[in-house]
Fold:
Amino acid sequence: MTDNENRRGARRQQRGLQRQAAILEAAGMVFAEAGYVGTTTNAIADRAGISPGSLYQFFPNKEAIADALAKQYTHELQQFWDSTFSADNIHMSLDVLINILVDSMITFDENKPGFSVLFFGDDTSADLAAMGHQLHEGIIGRFADLISARNPNIPPEKCELMANVIIRLYKAFVPVMVEHHSQQNTQMIGEMKAVLRGYLAPHIG
Structure:
């Protein structure tokens, strides 16, 4: 194979990867808007700006798209956890730590619009729901480890309980923040941080 043929092959491969990425990005937005059951390959193709036939060159059906997107989200979430729960962050002051945790989680949710629908939506598939359960257990474990690292005197079962409370508080605030414009979002985020600070200060402040 000549150098020109190699370069053309590399360009085709690159275009293919870019097209797949565009399809998955479009799918995330459509899943977020229509839910798992309400999402169709035609809607995803339309959002991606391609024909359904072009989409089928990469993914045979909606389930394959959802599976690829779920794997992408899982990989990105693991990277997010490793960065957010780094040793340097864990031992910062409580105010700084809360800012990092909350702001990072909000940014992740905003950048991955289909994440919650795919893994935790009421109409998602059984396989995706099972993956979501594993991810939920994983984030609980990360928070429990963080609490234990800051205060080794807290029993493991208490650390896990506190981790569950943190996640429930965050999930309770998220829908409210989504419903309001940016100024109110900022205020709501500030209030959520204050609630978390008040809850955590006696234990890991």
